[in-house]
Design goal:
Blueprint (H helix, E strand, L loop, with lengths): L1 H16 L1 H21 L12 E7 L4 H12 L3 E4 L7 H9 L5 E7 L10 E7 L5 H30 L7 H5 L3 E5 L11 H14 L3 H14 L1 H6 L5 H33 L11 H25 L3 H18 L11 H7 L3 H13 L5 H31 L1
Parallel strand pairs: 1-2, 1-3, 4-5
Antiparallel strand pairs: 3-4
Helix pairs in contact: 1-10, 2-7, 2-10, 3-5, 7-10, 7-14, 8-11, 8-12, 10-11, 11-12, 11-14, 11-15, 14-15
Length: 396
């Protein structure tokens, strides 16, 4: 254990001497979170004409509700799903809460027209992953359709009666639409841009451990440090663990730092406060799993790169590609279906969805563990492959 302690001490010293690597891991994500969260506070991501999955639960099942759903389908911006009759509203709400669908439209009948002339009560529940601008567009579209159907019905009634109406503009404009949010169990508050931006840029930043770690491993390989370490009686597993554990600790500190920025710094600058969810154990699990995946990726880059310049280029470019595919830079629902399927292969997507499970969907261990397991397996598999490559290179 004395030798293992010495290895740990050496790795921590190398880590803290690499000021550029530490700045990349801490300063860069702080800038991303602050700038992106504040800049996109009122304007977060465009809809882009993408089809949005909408669940329709028609309790009214009358002529008015049929006209409304037909008009909604004719708008072309929605992908409709009419659940089976045996599916309860609780199951449908759970699909929206977990972002399997973007919206849930519940249509209730009114026993008689209200004072504003409405014959339907429509409730629109919005999934946590839907951004603010998309929400505004969809709410406005639904209100406009309700308003148009209401005017048509009133005009038809006037023609039948042969009398002119005395309704005011306010009465014609009034529609019965209730908007709720499937956000951390709170149906009154919508998620903010901070709530969606911080997890995305946090995952992106964590994978940039590839730069300092790969550069350190390559320098040790070039200077013969690794060859000298192999001459001492230390098990290869302990040697690898001693090299990766300091970075693992630093990455967990990085998570705490970035979350603290969202909780404390952003509100001081006039933005919204990051809400951390209800499950600290789930948050810790997904943070640890992303760290393992990022470390595995970094070791793999170090194994296949011959110089620090190659490692920096491969690691940086790979991060950008994984981020673009994984919904970090562009929300995945804006992508074509093929790109969405490719994005599911990105470990950044798994990490992002894991953090969103906790921070947006109020999920616990049961919701997070599949993504955490996939990230852990990914990281360990890449580490094992990297060790094999390094061993063969050393024997060559």
């Amino acid at each position: 254990m004395t030798r293992f302690t010495a290895i740990l001490r050496k790795e921590f010293l190398l880590l803290f001497r690499d000021l550029h690597g530490l700045l990349l891991m801490f300063a860069m994500p702080v800038v991303f979170i602050v700038v992106m969260s504040l800049a996109m506070q009122q304007n977060f991501a465009a809809l882009g004409g993408a089809k949005l999955e909408v669940l329709v639960h028609d309790k009214a099942a009358n002529q008015d509700s049929a006209q409304f759903t037909e008009a909604l389908a004719a708008s072309g911006a929605f992908g409709f799903s009419y659940p089976a009759s045996d599916e309860t509203i609780e199951l449908l709400a759970e699909q929206v809460r977990t972002d399997q669908a973007s919206f849930l439209v519940e249509i209730d009948p009114l026993s008689e027209a209200d004072e504003a002339g409405n014959t339907l009560a429509v409730r629109l529940t919005i999934a946590p992953g839907v951004n603010k601008q998309t929400e505004v567009i969809v709410v406005a579209a639904v209100e406009e359709l309700l308003r148009g159907l209401k005017v048509q019905k009133m005009l038809a009634d006037l023609e039948d009666s042969g009398m002119g109406g005395g309704e005011s503009v306010e009465e014609l404009a009034a529609v019965e639409l209730q908007v709720d949010y499937a956000y951390q169990g709170n149906t009154e508050a919508a998620p903010t841009a901070v709530q969606q931006n911080v997890p995305a840029w946090l995952v992106f930043a964590m994978f940039f451990v590839v730069v300092p770690l790969s550069n350190t491993l390559i320098r040790e390989r070039q200077f013969g440090t690794l060859r000298r370490l192999r001459t001492i009686a230390v098990a290869p597993g302990l040697l690898v663990l001693g090299k990766l554990l300091p970075y693992f600790v630093i990455m967990l500190m990085q998570v705490v730092c970035m979350l603290a920025v969202g909780v404390f710094l952003i509100p001081l600058l006039g933005g919204d406060r990051l809400e951390l969810g209800a499950s600290w154990s789930a948050l810790t699990m997904i943070a640890a799993a992303v760290s393992i995946a990022a470390l595995g990726y970094a070791v793999f880059i170090a194994a296949v790169a011959r110089t620090t310049e190659q490692a920096t280029m491969l690691g940086g470019a790979g991060n950008i590609i994984l981020a673009a595919l994984g919904g970090i830079m562009v929300p995945s629902f804006l992508m074509p279906e093929t790109m969405q399927q490719l994005g599911q292969l990105s470990p950044m997507s798994w990490g992002l969805q894991g953090f969103l499970d906790v921070l947006l969907r109020n999920g616990g261990l049961a919701l997070v563990w599949p993504k955490a397991l996939a990230l852990t397996v990914f990281g360990l598999a890449l580490t094992a492959m990297s060790l094999t490559v390094m061993k063969r290179s050393a024997q060559a």
